[in-house]
Design goal:
4-stranded parallel sheet; 11 helices
Amino acid sequence: MKLSVFYTPELTPETTLADCAIAVDVLRATSTIVTALSSGAEAVQVFSDLDKLLKVSEDWSSAKRIRAGERGGSKVEGFDFGNSPLDCTPERVGGKRLFISTTNGTRALQCVQTAPTVLAAALINREAVVQHLLQHQPETVWIVGSGWEGSFSLEDTVCAGAIAHQLQTKLGCSLEELAENDEVVGAIALYQQWQDNLLDLMHHASHGKRLLRLGCDEDLKYCSQTDVLDVLPMQREPGVLINSKSLVPIG
C-alpha cells in the first residue's frame, strides 16, 4: 500500500487517481457527515453549488430531506442546518437524507468522486477508516484535506497524520514503505506533536479561530475527539455517501 497526502483538493494530480480516496474536513463537513450517518441519516448527498443542491433536493419530500448550507462558517439563509455536527441528532436526521454544501469539504469530496472507492474521514471516525484500509489493502491511497479556500489547514493535516500513523503502526511497516510523498511524513510529525492536545491545535488553527469567533466552541471540542464513532461514510454513487458499516453482507 502506498499513501499520499494532499493538503488541498487543488494539489491532487490531474492525470492519475488513487484506488481509494479519502476526503477530510475536520472543521466541519466530514465530521458532520460522519455524525449524520451515525445518527441514522439515510444518506448524505454533497454539493459544491448551493443552487444545484436546492434543485436536486426538490425531488424529495420535505419530511425526508434536510438542507444544510454553510459559507464562511455561517449557516446559509433559508437552509435547515449550517454545518455543525451537533445539529445531527437522531431525532432530527434519522431516516432522512442530508443535502449539504459547505465552503471547503464538499469540494474535496467532489474532487475525488471518480475514484473506485471514496471515503469521508474525520478524527471522530479515524479507526473505522484505518480498519477499512487494513481489510481491503488498496494499492494506492490518497488522503485529501479540504483546507480553507485553497490554503493549508492544521486540522485536516493532523487528521491525515492520525490516519497515516495508525496505519503504519498496524501494518508494521516503515515510513519509507508507506509514504508516497513528503506530505505523509509532515502530517505524521504534526500528529505526533499534538496527539495529546488536539483541541489546543484546533484553537491555533485559522479556521478554528474563525469558528470560535462565531461561538462554535462546542463544535471544536466535539471535532477534536478521536475514534468515538464506528462509522464509515462511503460513496455509493457520485456525491452520495452512506454508512458502509450498516450494510449487511450478502451470503
